[in-house]
Structures are given as structure tokens and as C-alpha cells.
Write a structure and sequence with these properties.
Distance between the termini of chain A: 79 Å
Structural class of chain B: alpha/beta
Number of strands of chain A: 15
Strand content of chain A: over 45%
CATH class of the largest domain in chain A: Mainly Beta
CATH class of the largest domain in chain B: Alpha Beta
Number of helices of chain B: 6
Number of domains of chain A: 2
CATH superfamily of the largest domain in chain A: Thiol:disulfide interchange protein DsbD, N-terminal domain
Oligomer: heterodimer
Largest sheet of chain A: 6 strands, antiparallel
Number of strands of chain B: 8
Number of helices of chain A: 1
CATH superfamily of the largest domain in chain B: Glutaredoxin
Strand content of chain B: 15-25%
Number of domains of chain B: 2
Shape of chain B: globular
Strand order of the largest sheet of chain B: 2-1-5-4-3-7-8
Chain lengths: 187, 183
């Protein structure tokens, strides 16, 4: 009996050590899980606050054309993300600094819901259910990279989904999830 | 006969043992994941931060801000919703105990909000000293949320930690401060 108990204790200690090594202790921030579909269009990311499927289409971009970045975001249970119009950091799509791309139109946001933030007794616009952001993106003609276009040219589009998530007790640190595609710019 | 029976039985026991170990790993992982988020346990020491810029332009290390009896270090940023809910109460604690050996420092973790701090402090009448940190400081302390409070003793060891805010948390914080000051 004592040997059996010893065995259980050894296994428990092994399990605790494994968990510690895996970084599951409170306070550890797991990196976002990322995957890309086989066509290279849809990036899927998952954090402790949300999941997002970000799609860029088309991946061929005529010189004066546009591509559409669509981010389908699903907050995890109990989480909400601040929407434009709140005084907090609202969810948005940002293009990387020095990007050869620019927004061709304002980002399209769905209508948020009003959340009562009890500690300050205020109503705040948030997203607490699946929602979709859309950004129309074009090449920035003022950038030298797009001027010598005589043949198709691969261009990297770097963007991010920036947000701050909160639940009924905590606001988590703001996050910036990197999004990246290779677009073929055509004459 | 016994040998042929023992073989598979021992193999089965090993498999069962493996399954039990896996089950224990799963249980411990679930318990750890469900535990109340705390950046560190009170038994851990507070890693001294490198010198950080203060609002007056000076550079300060942990040693420069430690109080004679206790220090409350709070990580925040100005547009953090729960910080804005908690800080009026935290400021009251600072005013109530600063002459009894309590020091306090608020460390901003988002550099892009530094420009907001001066007007934010003035608007709310906050007087607790502020240092300008960044995301790497937040990572150093494994912060997941703000505000996160570390109550330190005179030598910088962690007495208690507290993350987030809900009404009444200030009473727990004040009780801990009271104890730390030896009152």
C-alpha cells in the first residue's frame, strides 16, 4: 500500500514538474497559435481572449486595385473587446509602419453592443460576440516599391489586429496580433 | 503459463501507469489553469527593475523607490479600465499611509500612452510617483492584466500580490498595507 501511494506521489510530482515546464503556471502568457490555409489566404490565430480568421483576397493586386482584409473575430466566453467610440483601446486593423500599402477606405466596423462597466458605472461600446472587421487596402503609389512595375512583383503585406480584451474582473494587456501575406502586384 | 500471463499483465500495468500519469498531468494542468491569476506567489522575490525614467526626467531603480517599511508597486496604463476604477482608492491608501513608511510607485507599461499621463494625473488628482516602463517590463514580471499590485517589504521582498479590481479589493489592499507597516 505504501509503495502504491509512493507511486502515486511520484506520478503527481512528475505531473506537477511537467506542468511547470510547460509554462502553465498562472501569469505565463501563451503565444498565439497561428495557422495558414493551403491557399495562403486565411490566417487563423487563437489567443486566451479570442480566435480570429483573417482573410486577404485577392492575392493578385493590379497596380490601381484593392485587396480586402477581413478579420472574423470570436471573443472567448466572458470576454469583450472595446469598440470605436469608447475611451479605451478599441479593436482595429493596423498596417505596419513603412508599409507599401495604405488603407483605401476607413475600416468597416459592425454595430457594437453597450456594456455596463460596473466599477465606473459607465456604458461602453464593446463586441462580446463574433464580429467582422473589413479593411480595403491598396498599394501606396507614393512608395518607390510600386513604381517599377513591368512584371509581377511579390510584395509583403504586414498588418496587425490590435485589441484590448476584458472580462468581468480583469482587463488584459493590449495585444497586437501579427498578420502577414504575400501579394503579387501586377502591372 | 504464468510467464505468458505475467507478460501482458505487466505490460497492461505499465500502460495503466502511463495513463494515470497522463491523467495526473491533465488534472494538475486544469487546476493550474483555473487558479486565480496571480503574477507571482508571495514567496517569490521581486526582481529589481532596471532604471526607469520618472516624469521629472530622472532615472530611478527599485532601490530608489523603496519605502522605509513597505512599498506598493502598481503596473498600469492610463486608459486601463480597471486601473481607473481602482486608482482613486489606491491614491487614498497612499495619502493615508505615506507618512507611516509606505512608498508607492505606479509603472506605466504602454509607452504610447506616456503622453496621456500628465493630464490624467492632474485630472484625477493623483500624486503617487509614476515611472515610465514598457512591454518588456511587463514581460519581466509576467503581467497578464492591469492593474497588478506588488506589496513589498523594506528589502523589496514580495509580501502580497493582487491583480485586477472589483469593489472592495481596496479593503484587502489596505489590510495588507496595514500589516506590512506593523500597525
Amino acid at each position: 500500500m505504501s509503495i502504491r501511494r509512493l507511486g502515486i506521489r511520484v506520478r503527481f510530482l512528475a505531473a506537477a514538474a511537467a506542468v511547470a515546464l510547460l509554462g502553465l503556471r498562472p501569469g505565463a502568457q501563451p503565444p498565439p497559435a497561428v495557422s495558414l490555409d493551403t491557399q495562403g489566404r486565411t490566417l487563423s490565430l487563437s489567443t486566451e481572449h479570442l480566435t480570429v480568421a483573417a482573410t486577404l483576397a485577392p492575392l493578385q493586386l493590379p497596380r490601381a486595385g484593392r485587396v480586402t482584409l477581413t478579420a472574423s473575430v470570436t471573443p472567448k466566453a466572458g470576454m469583450h473587446l472595446y469598440a470605436p467610440g469608447s475611451r479605451y483601446r478599441s479593436v482595429t486593423i493596423k498596417l505596419a509602419a513603412n508599409s507599401p500599402f495604405q488603407l483605401a477606405a476607413p475600416i468597416a466596423y459592425p454595430k457594437p453592443v453597450l456594456y455596463t462597466f460596473k466599477p465606473l458605472n459607465e456604458q461602453v461600446p464593446v463586441y462580446d460576440a463574433p464580429f467582422r472587421l473589413m479593411a480595403q487596402i491598396a498599394l501606396d503609389a507614393s512608395r518607390p516599391i510600386v513604381t517599377p512595375l513591368r512584371r509581377p512583383l511579390p510584395v509583403t503585406l504586414k498588418a496587425s489586429l490590435d485589441y484590448q480584451a476584458c472580462d468581468a474582473r480583469f482587463c488584459y494587456l493590449p495585444e497586437s496580433l501579427p498578420l502577414r501575406w504575400t501579394v503579387t502586384s501586377t502591372p | 503459463m504464468s510467464l505468458t500471463q505475467d507478460g501482458p499483465t505487466q505490460g497492461g500495468l505499465k500502460t495503466q501507469g502511463g495513463l494515470k500519469t497522463a491523467l495526473y498531468i491533465l488534472i494538475v494542468a486544469i487546476v493550474a489553469a483555473l487558479a486565480t491569476p496571480r503574477p507571482v506567489t508571495a514567496a517569490e522575490s521581486f526582481k529589481p527593475f532596471k532604471k526607469l525614467k520618472a516624469l521629472d526626467g530622472s532615472q530611478q531603480s527599485l532601490g530608489d523607490v523603496l519605502g522605509s517599511k513597505a512599498t506598493l508597486v502598481v503596473f498600469f496604463f492610463p486608459t486601463c479600465p480597471y486601473c481607473n476604477a481602482a486608482f482613486p482608492e489606491v491614491q487614498k491608501i497612499y495619502e493615508r499611509y505615506k507618512d507611516q513608511g509606505l512608498a508607492m510607485v505606479w509603472i506605466n507599461v504602454l509607452p504610447d500612452e506616456e503622453k496621456l499621463i500628465a493630464s490624467w494625473r492632474a485630472q484625477h488628482g493623483y500624486t503617487a510617483p509614476v515611472l515610465l516602463g514598457n512591454r518588456s517590463v511587463a514581460n519581466d514580471y509576467k503581467l497578464r492584466m492591469t492593474p497588478t499590485h506588488f506589496l513589498l517589504d523594506a528589502k523589496g521582498a514580495v509580501l502580497s500580490t493582487h491583480a485586477g479590481y472589483s469593489a472592495g479589493d481596496e479593503k484587502i489592499l489596505e489590510r495588507d498595507v496595514h500589516q506590512a507597516l506593523g500597525n
